[in-house]
Amino acid sequence: MHFEQAFIGGLRPHPEHQRLFVPLSDDELTELARRMADGGRFQPLLITDDGLILAGVEHWLAATRLGWREISVIRAPRLRPVELRALMVAENIRSLDVRDEHLWRGMNNFFDMEPLRPPGGW
Questions:
Q1: Residue of higher predicted confidence among 22 and 25
Q2: pTM of this prediction?
Q3: Which domain holds residue 96?
Q4: Which residue among 38, 56, 81, 106 sits deepest, i.e. has the most Cβ atoms within 10 Å of its Cβ?
């Protein structure tokens, strides 16, 4: 995997994101945008080949609010939908800034997924 720049308008949150994670409040999003505008470090967004954001939705929202045209991304490997969902949960809950609500909601929903199995079965 490598870093690249992606056009912000071509990205969108994974459809499961809103169900899995508690969104930032407007004040929290404003603070994140301020830190990003001041040059604060943040991890690149993790996206699929078709522009679904697996991790970094809040940074994407803040960048949009700032009027940025591009943002740093890493493209996820091609995986099955259930594997992408597991990766999305894992990447979002490992963040140093993860809120308790994110952790609990993400982990509860993680266990609702179909089990991960090798392509040929066990």
A1: 25
A2: 0.73
A3: 3-110
A4: 56
